[in-house]
Specification:
alpha+beta, 14 helices, globular
């Protein structure tokens, strides 16, 4: 049945998304935020970075909603220890899981690192268990909240230092994404160009170090980025190593310089933080598709991608759409399929992939 569904999905997308559905092995996980007026009612400026007291009760309520559904759907909810205390792991029968966690002012859903093909499977079930349950628990996706997209560095780039750093520079060349296209919160996910340091020379220096073999591992590269590019405090309330639109901070543990069949490091993700809270599981998948397609585009570039510094500015709706359309064309992606991601339309139950095909929406 699994193979049959994969073949069906391959058929549906073989023309406009063949490059995406070629099994890449790249994994995508997420941290999807939900919130409510009830959670925000106890907010104050003095509590930045701290729990307000209503996050765990909201997460527990969502877990209770999911638990009732799992009685008939065959999934299982178990209590686990998390960052702040008790959290809830939801295990589906096919092995996929998500965790109901929480952070200041939100309930946070952490998803299993998965390939695109794994994300496509049982999409309606994932939609109902996560987004349907959140609504029933009084929670919602809001533009002021985020989704953090976590992509496995090894699964995406293997041991290719040049392509990994090219991906970093390509993101720096497109500050529009964190200036209104996907999100605009320069406290927690600022574009690199907000730094007042000499980025041009520092980036060229890192490129030279890679070329000469002086930077030998992903971990070493991540430490150089943190030390030389992410060391400035844009806001005293936020840690610059963590709060960037794209952060490699978790990659410091990747010390291997080449593949070793005797020992394989556990893959860890780089994190795109400048993404508005997704409104459906379908939208989460669209972001994963775009990341994967841009990774493929980066790998086609010869040599190092030059850094092109742009003055940061907040974009209006027309500028956002114009930039996004150009980026999609450059990345060889369908405007019709991805443009709704940046539209602030009201919520409606999303169509699954098969329904979209038969309703001529693809």
């Amino acid at each position: 049945m699994r193979n049959l569904l994969l073949l069906l999905l391959l058929f549906l997308f073989q023309f406009s998304h063949a490059q995406i559905l070629t099994e890449s092995g790249i994994t995508h996980g997420g941290e999807i935020e939900f919130t409510s007026d009830w959670i925000y009612a106890v907010d104050s400026k003095e509590k930045v970075g701290k729990l307000r007291g209503r996050e765990f009760p909201a997460a527990r309520k969502m877990a209770e909603v999911v638990g009732k559904k799992c009685r008939s759907l065959g999934c299982k909810v178990s209590r686990v220890q998390g960052k702040w205390g008790n959290e809830y792991r939801v295990q589906l029968q096919d092995g996929w899981w998500f965790q109901i966690s929480y952070d200041p002012l939100c309930v946070e859903i952490q998803t299993k690192p998965s390939t695109l093909q794994e994300l496509y499977l049982h999409q309606e079930l994932k939609e109902e268990l996560i987004f349907g349950s959140a609504r029933e628990a009084g929670l919602e996706s809001r533009p002021n909240r985020a989704t953090h997209m976590n992509t496995g560095a090894r699964s995406a780039f293997g041991y290719d230092l040049r392509s990994l750093f090219n991906y970093f520079v390509d993101n720096a060349n497109n500050p529009e994404f964190s200036s209104g296209v996907f999100r605009q919160n320069w406290n927690t996910s600022p574009p690199l160009v907000l730094n007042d340091i000499d980025l041009d020379q520092r980036i060229k220096s890192i490129q030279t170090q890679i070329e000469k073999g002086q930077i030998k591992s992903f971990g070493q590269l991540a430490r150089e980025i943190i030390r030389r590019l992410h060391s400035n405090f844009l806001s005293s309330q936020f840690n610059p190593n963590r709060n960037q639109d794209l952060t490699f901070r978790k990659l410091t543990s990747l010390t291997q310089e080449k593949k070793n069949p005797r020992y394989q490091e556990t893959d860890v993700p780089f994190e795109r933080r400048a993404v508005r809270a997704v409104r459906s599981f379908s939208e989460f998948i669209l972001h994963a598709e775009m990341i994967e397609s841009r990774i493929a585009w980066v790998k086609t570039q010869s040599g190092f991608i030059p850094f092109n510094r742009k003055a940061p500015k907040v974009l209006d709706s027309y500028q956002r759409e114009q930039f996004f359309n150009s980026w999609l064309i450059e990345t060889n992606l369908s405007i019709d399929r991805y443009l709704p991601v940046i539209k602030a339309s009201s919520w409606r139950k999303p169509l699954n992939l098969c329904q979209k095909f038969y309703s001529n929406q693809m």
